[in-house]
Design a protein that fits this description.
Blueprint: H1 17-23, H2 67-77, E1 84-86, H3 89-97, E2 105-109, H4 114-125, E3 130-134, H5 139-144, E4 151-155, H6 167-176, E5 180-184, H7 189-192, E6 202-206, E7 220-223, H8 227-240, H9 246-256, H10 259-277, E8 283-287, H11 297-303, E9 310-315, H12 318-328, E10 333-334, E11 344-347, E12 362-366, H13 372-387
Parallel strand pairs: 2-3, 2-4, 4-5, 5-6, 10-11
Antiparallel strand pairs: 1-7, 6-7, 8-9, 9-12, 11-12
The chain binds pyridoxal-5'-phosphate.
Length: 388
């Protein structure tokens, strides 16, 4: 055999993550093959006789368009089993929560993504689980809540307070208590931290954010190296039907190709802006794990490969002053969400469900890839206007 094609998506082992984002999930290297995976628009797949495990069979069970994205994300998170793509981040969150046995105890950060908290609260309200919310940066306080827990939910950095959880210590403590450990790795991305390496069992993503990266697709994913857990998640996806569209998944993989470059840029700008915002007369507090004086700095330095591109600032004068800053901005886009190429800003308490412990004047900045000085100039003029 002289010109046997290499396996689909195969490439040399031990590539750096910023190569994996480009090289993984490619079609077979055969003559005239496309460089990019195709979008497969088919609701059903040809088959005769009994449907056996691994058959595509039907579009709610699988789609060839999912595979390259699922392989790429698995490789980035360090899982030997393909990820599972879902219709949205919240569909992925719901699937992961379904791994908690009925009536089990779910321990969750009080500053979790509000949609995840809302799902947990709704399940708790109908008796499907018992919810214990915790201050996730306070390791001892979390440990104290783990007795009898069925699942520990981790988010680090948290949204929007950017608290840092001690991933490995908490995962060990949760396992000792007999709980499964799930981490929402949306904020950090696998380029910033790989929770599976810290002993976490299941990682969830809102692919909508940094992975897709262009604010043009809503998508989610779950990653686990555990065969049994993965089989249950596959079943959940197939039966509940929150499946990803082939084109959305293709867009997400296209976004992943530039993720390393995007984050390199946005992270450097976030660090610069956080530094300049610190001590600004219009600002009461700046939260960014990359700032040496940030309460989460040492922990973030120990467990992350980068401090991320989200900065939280608390404007003096509360909601009214913070809204004035947002109004005065011309380049920063006033919108929810994060992780896109364009810089977004939002006063989080404008959402009625946002926890009351989030300050009224807190603005969450999702730093994009624009010129750093242009972003700073816009912020500086808006802060000045709000002060006047
Ligand atoms: C946006 C987000 C989600 C929800 O994802 P969707 O794609 O909007 O459904 C979950 N977790 C975090 C941390 C998020 O930022």
């Amino acid at each position: 055999m002289t010109d046997a094609p290499s396996a689909a998506g195969s490439h040399p082992d031990h590539l750096a993550p910023d190569t994996v984002v480009v090289a993984a999930g490619r079609p077979e290297r055969t003559h005239d093959a496309p460089v990019n995976p195709p979008v497969v628009l088919s609701s059903t797949f040809i088959g005769r006789g009994e449907v056996v495990h691994g058959d595509r069979a039907y579009g709610r069970y699988s789609n060839p368009s999912w595979d390259p994205f699922e392989e790429t994300l698995a490789e980035l998170e360090g899982s030997g089993l393909p990820a599972l793509v879902f219709a949205s981040g919240l569909a992925a969150v719901s699937a992961a929560m379904s791994l908690l046995p009925p009536g089990g105890v779910l321990v969750m950060p009080q500053h979790s993504y509000q949609g995840s908290l809302a799902v947990a609260e709704q399940l708790a309200a109908r008796g499907a689980l018992t919810l214990r919310t915790v201050e996730i940066a306070d390791t001892e306080a979390v440990k104290a809540q783990l007795a009898g827990a069925g699942m520990l939910w981790l988010e680090s950095p948290t949204n929007p307070m950017l608290e840092i959880a001690e991933l490995q210590v908490l995962a060990e403590a949760a396992h000792a208590a007999g709980a499964l450990v799930v981490a929402d790795n949306t904020f950090s991305t696998p380029l910033g931290q790989r929770p599976l390496e810290s002993g976490v069992d299941v990682v969830v993503h809102s692919v909508t954010k940094y992975l897709a990266g262009h604010s043009d697709v809503v998508l989610g994913a779950v990653v686990t190296p555990d065969e049994e857990l993965r089989a249950r998640l596959v079943e959940h996806r197939s039966l509940h039907g929150a499946i990803a569209g082939p084109f959305e998944t293709w867009l997400a993989l296209r976004g992943v190709r530039t993720m390393a470059l995007r984050i390199e840029r946005s992270q450097a700008t976030a660090a610069l802006l956080a530094e300049r915002l610190l001590g600004h007369p219009a600002i009461e507090a700046v939260r960014y794990p990359g700032l040496p004086q940030d309460p989460g700095h040492e922990r973030a330095k120990a467990q992350m490969d980068g401090f991320g591109s989200i900065v939280a600032i608390v404007i003096k004068g509360g909601a009214e002053a913070a809204d004035m800053v947002v109004e005065a901005l011309r380049l920063w886009v006033p919108a929810t969400s994060l992780g896109g190429v364009e810089s977004l800003i939002e006063r989080r308490r404008r959402h009625v469900n946002e926890p009351a412990s989030v300050p009224q004047g807190l603005l969450r900045l999702s730093v994009g890839i624009e010129n750093a000085e242009d972003l700073w100039a816009d912020l500086a003029q808006a802060l000045e206007k709000a002060q006047a």
